[in-house]
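Exercise: predict the fold of this chain.
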Amino acid sequence: MSLAIAVEIIAALSLRFSQGFTKPLPTVVALGAFGSAFYLISLALVTLPVSTVYPVWAGGGTAGVALLGVLALREKANVEKGLGIVLVVTGIVTLNIAAGG
């Protein structure tokens, strides 16, 4: 599932650089990465419950994109954004503990 989260982050960042699908390369990367992320999540769902897989994937992607937005894209950082990332990661850890893994 880690790979699915990483690909999701690549997809979201590529989507930002596609400038509304007007830039061909980032558009192709975004669409391909989203498709790949969905495929990887479908593989995880073969053996893991959706109540764990989907929130961990979505939350991991959300936290990763928010963190990279601040660190790599120089987006505004503030206490609220930091707290939000911490809460998302805490939720992911809690879901993994509840799922036994």
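Check your answer against the key: The radius of gyration is 15 Å.
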